[in-house]
Amino acid sequence: MYSNKWGRFMFGLYNLKPTSVCSAVRRAAGRSGFSRTAVCEQRTLWLQGAARVETERRHSGSRSVSQTTVDPAEVRRFQSLATKWWDEQGEFAALHALNDLRVPFVRDNLLNVHRARHPGKPLAELRILDVGCGGGLLTEPLGRLGANVLGIDPVEDSIGTAHLHSSHDPDLVDRVLFRACTLEQLSGEGEGEQEEQGAAQFDAVVASEVVEHLADLETFALCCSNVLKPGGSLFITTINKTNLSYALAVVVAERLLRIVPNGTHDWEKFISPVELERLLESHGFSVQSVQGMLYNPMSGAWSWTNSTSINYALHAVKLSDVTEDSDAHLEDHAAAAHS
Ligand SMILES: C[S@@+](CC[C@H](N)C(=O)[O-])C[C@H]1O[C@@H](n2cnc3c(N)ncnc32)[C@H](O)[C@@H]1O
């Protein structure tokens, strides 16, 4: 899914102009036995459906509310990959390489706000939550920068892999923890009379290549706000929702060429930077920066780019007076779900 083979294929197509993509789709359609007209009709119907859903969503003012971020199909998919996280040439090769961009992105943005107090450990004394940590590919380097990091993921076997791998590094033993749970479970632990565990405890939340796998982004945004301290940072990397990403990730890769299993990518769950920004700002965040990222599968390296049309990274900050609004929002959210 994130392997070099997949990356090479995606990169080759990403570098085609839209007209070339159409030609590629036509050629592939011919080879696969799909008629070109059928593919175009399917695409048109799909776009009409998507436009209708988007219009309804705008009118209702929110995305679907289900109160869980968990999509069971996604959990099953990552369960089957739970032993593969640390194979640097394997399924997750591109995620290993992505550390070259995302680790400095998180570090430098945090250092703009928090002064480094320990030489060699610039993130010391900061608490970071890595949501959807998988095997801990990003959790570990953040721990090595001195942060106390909690990695969470609903896939228990991935957490087992993450825990085992980090236990080999004595530098991480006291600094990095992993837990098999969801963000909403962690967030809910702050409620009630007990000592607050989930609420307002983190200086930063990172969710890297995760939001495109979630069932409900409203719940995600609410819970991120709940677990962050006022002024805390949220870092997201994800895939844009463009015609190009539909053509490449869904039509060509899954349905025509069948390079990845049908259903691996749900284009409807991809989100544009504009929509993500709107969602976060409605939950009391202020978006500080959005930057495009590009993967070069020939070199296996990522680089920053001005274009956010494929992959992008976003940094947002929780506004200081968001807690009361967020509580009211959580109550509305719960009432809506129960009505
Ligand atoms: C593409 S992987 C990214 C892993 C890790 N963030 C990284 O970049 O190395 C997506 C991760 O999201 C996790 N995930 C799926 N549904 C989730 C949910 N509802 N809450 C948190 N994580 C979830 C998957 O189990 C998987 O580990």
What does this structure look like?
By secondary structure, the chain is of the alpha/beta class. It has a single domain, classed as Vaccinia Virus protein VP39 (Rossmann fold, 3-Layer(aba) Sandwich), CATH 3.40.50.150. Helices cover 45% and strands 18% of the residues. The chain is built from 12 helices and 8 strands. An 8-stranded mixed β-sheet has the order 3-2-1-4-5-8-6-7. Strand 4, helix 9 and strand 5 form a beta-alpha-beta unit. Helix 2 packs parallel to helix 10. The chain is globular, with a radius of gyration of 20 Å. It starts with a helix and ends with a helix.
Summarize the structure.
This protein has 339 residues and is α/β, with parallel strands linked by helices.
Fill in the keyword field for this structure.
alpha/beta, 8 strands, 12 helices, 339 residues, Rossmann fold, globular, binds S-adenosylmethionine, eight-stranded mixed sheet
Q: Distance between the terminal alpha carbons, to the nearest Å?
A: 39 Å
The CATH superfamily name is: Vaccinia Virus protein VP39
Task: Tell me the number of helical segments per DSSP (H or I, 4 or more residues long).
Answer: 12
The assigned structural class equals: alpha/beta
Proportion of helical residues: 40-55%
Number of domains: 1
What oligomeric assembly is this protein in? single chain
Based on DSSP secondary structure assignment, what is the total number of beta strands? 8
Helix and strand pattern: HHHHHEHEHEHEHEHHEEEH
CATH topology: Rossmann fold
The low-pLDDT segments are 4-65
- Average pLDDT score: 78
